[in-house]
Amino acid sequence: MIKLYLTRGKLHAETMTAKVYADILGKSAPAIGRNPFGKPFFKDPGEGHLSLSHSGDYTLLALSRDPVGVDLQRLRMKADPDAAAARFFTPAEAGLITSADPAEKTSRFLALWAKKEAAVKAAGTGFLISPSSFSVLTDPIVLEGLTLRLMAAKAPAGYTAWLAAASENLRAAPPVIID
Question: Within 10 A of 174 (CB to CB), how many other CB atoms are there?
Answer without folding.
Answer: 10
